[in-house]
Amino acid sequence: RRFLRNFGRGTLVVLLTATGAFLYVTQRDVNPGDQLPADPEKPTLVVLGSGWGATSFLKTLDTEEFNVVVISPRNYFLFTPLLPSVTVGTLEPRSIIQPTRYITRHKKRKVDVYEAEAQEVDPIKKTVTFQDMSDIRGAAGSVTIPYDYLVYAVGCENQTFGIKGVPEYACFLKELSDADKVRTKLLDCIETAAFKNQPESEIDRLMHMVVVGGGPTGVEYAGELHDFLIDDLKKWYPEIADRLRITLIEALPNVLPAFSKQLIQYTESTFAENKIDVLTRTMVKDVKERSVVVQDANKEIREIPYGLLVWATGNTSRNITRDLMGKLTSAQTQRRGLLVDDYLRLLGADGVYAVGDCTATQYAPTAQVASQQGIYLAQLFGKLGQKAKLERQLAQLRSQGDVGSAEIEGVVKKLNRVSKLTEFHYSHQGSLAYIGSEKAIADLPFFNNNLASGGGAAMLFWRSAYISTLYSVRNRTLVLADWAKVKIFGRDVSRE
Ligand code: FAD
Ligand code: NAI
C-alpha cells in the first residue's frame, strides 16, 4: 500500500511538473514581450520568403544589429514533410503551419512582416519591389524599399515541362491550398462515383486516382491515398470502395531514384501488395480534362482516364528568380537556380545571400538543406552584427585619447576573430519517406556507411523525427492530437 501510495504521489508530481512546463512554454510562446524599435543607424536586412530557409534563418537570427523586413505572400511557415497527410485528412491543415509573426514577435528588435509578393530585385540599386497579391489589397499598390542585405529564399514552383493541360487539370502538392484542393477533389470524385445510375465506365474513371512523378512527393501521396482507401473508404463507401485504383506514373526505370536500391525495391513491393500500380519508364506527354496521354515502356502512346490527377514532377525556378539571373548574366550561368559561393553569397551581387530550393548547389532541394543553410546564414549575420558592434567600440576607444593600447588591442583581436568566416557545410541526417500501410523507409548515414530500413519501425522513427522537428509546441500538440483523433474516430470524409 505504501508503495502504491508513493507511486501515486510520484506520478502526480511528474504530471503536475509536466503540465506546468507545458503551460509555461506555451504561454511564453503566445505572449511575446516588448521589442526594441527600429534603429535608423542599423542596416536594413530584407528577407524574401517564409519557408524552410527563411524561417530557420529568422528563428536563429539575432536581430539587435539589423532592421529586419520579411516579405512573403504566405504569412506562415508550412511544414512540407507532413503535407501529404493533409490531402486525405490524416492531419488538419492548421496543425502543420506556424504564423511567421509568432516567430518574428519574439525577436529582440521589431521585425516588419509584409504579406506580399516580391516582384523585382534590383541588385544594382539594392532595392526590392513588392505588392500585396491577396484578395483584399487596399490602396497601397506596389512598394519599393532599399536593402543593405537581402536574404533570398523564395523557393521554387512546380515543374510542368510545358506539358499542355497540367495547370488546368492537374492538382499540385506544394502549398497548403493544394492539399486542400486535392482532398476536396478526391471526395468529389468519390461522391460523384456513388451517384445514382452512374455508368460503370464513369465510376471506373472517377475512382482512378493518378499520380505523376515517382519522387518522394508522389510516393508519399500514393501511400496516404492507400491508407484512406483501407481505413475509411471501405467503411463509409462499401459499395464502391473496391473500385478505387491508384496509379503512379514515373518516367525513369524506378521510383525514388535518390533512395538506396534496397528501399526502392521495398517501396515497389509494398506498393504491389497494396495494389498501387506503378508504371515506370512511362512518360506523360499530354493532359486532358479526363485522361492523360502517356508514352509507355514500349514507346507506345496510350490514354489513361482519371478522376483525380496529382502532378509531382519536381521543381523549377520562379519568374522573379529568372529575372534576377537575367540581371546578373555574367555570374549567373546556371538555368537550374541561383549560383552562390561557399558563404551563400549570390554570385555577381553585393549584399545578397540565397538559400534553399532557389539555389543551384551540389545538394538536393530539400528542407534539410534549406534549414541548415538558414541557420548557417543567421550565424554569419550574427558575426556581421558583432563586427559592427566591435567597430563602433573601437572607434569610440580611439576617439578617447587616454585609452591604453591593451584595451584597443583586445577589441582588435575580437574583431579579427569575428571577421573570420567559415564556409557552409551540409550535414546529411538521412532521408525518410512514408509509403502507406504504417510503413516508412529510412536511409540513414551510419558512421561512413548507410543504414537502410523499411517497415513499421521506420514509420515510428519517421513520426518521432517529424514530431521533434516541428517548429513549435503548438504544432507538436496539434499533430499528435490529429494522429490520435484519426486512430479513434477515423478520417473525416465530409467535403468542404
Ligand atoms: P519554401 O519552403 O518553398 O519557401 C519559399 C517561400 O518563399 C514561401 O514562403 C513562399 O510563399 C515564398 N515566396 C514565393 N514567392 C515569393 C516572392 N515572389 N516573394 C517573396 N516570397 C515568395 N524536404 C525534406 O528534406 N524532407 C521532406 O520530408 C520533405 N517533404 C516534402 C513534401 C512535400 C509535399 C514537398 C512539396 C516538399 C518536401 N520537401 C521535403 C522539400 C522541402 O519542402 C523544400 O526543399 C523546402 O521547402 C525548400 O525550402 P525553401 O525555403 O527554399 O522554399
Ligand atoms: P522529384 O524531382 O524528386 O521527382 C519527380 C519525378 O517525376 C522524377 O522521378 C521524374 O523522373 C518524374 N517525372 C518528371 N516528368 C515526368 C513525366 N512527364 N511523366 C512521368 N514522370 C515524370 O520531385 P518531388 O518528389 O516533388 O521532390 C522535390 C524535392 O523535394 C526533392 O528534392 C525531394 O527529395 C524533396 N522531397 C523530399 C521528401 C522526403 O524526403 N520525404 C518528400 C517530398 C519531397
How are strands sequenced across the largest beta sheet?
5-2-1-9-19
**Mean pLDDT across all amino acids:** 95
CATH class categorisation of the largest domain: Alpha Beta
User: How many H/I helices?
Assistant: 14
- CATH architecture heading of the largest domain: 3-Layer(bba) Sandwich
Largest sheet: 5 strands, parallel
Q: Structural class of the helix and strand makeup? A: alpha/beta
Low-confidence stretches: none
Which ions, cofactors or small ligands are bound in this entry? flavin-adenine dinucleotide, 1,4-dihydronicotinamide adenine dinucleotide
Rg for CA atoms: 26 Å
Shape: globular
Task: Explain the overall architecture.
The mean pLDDT is 95. Strands 5-2-1-9-19 form a five-stranded parallel β-sheet. A four-stranded parallel β-sheet has the order 13-12-11-17. A three-stranded antiparallel β-sheet has the order 6-7-8. The protein folds into three domains: 1-31; 40-156 and 317-419, FAD/NAD(P)-binding domain, CATH 3.50.50; 166-316 and 429-489, FAD/NAD(P)-binding domain. The chain contains 14 helices and 22 strands. It is globular and about 95 Å long. By secondary structure, it is α/β, with parallel strands linked by helices. The chain has helices at residues 2-30, 52-60, 83-86, 100-104, 166-169, 176-193, 200-206, 216-236, 261-273, 319-327, 367-399, 405-419, 456-469, 473-489; strands spanning 44-48, 67-72, 76-78, 97-99, 111-115, 117-122, 127-131, 143-146, 149-152, 157-158, 208-212, 245-249, 276-279, 283-287, 291-295, 301-305, 308-311, 315-316, 352-354, 431-436, 439-446, 449-455. The chain starts with a helix and ends in a 7-residue tail after the last helix. The protein binds flavin-adenine dinucleotide and 1,4-dihydronicotinamide adenine dinucleotide. 1,4-dihydronicotinamide adenine dinucleotide (NAI) binds next to helix 8, strand 14 and strand 20.
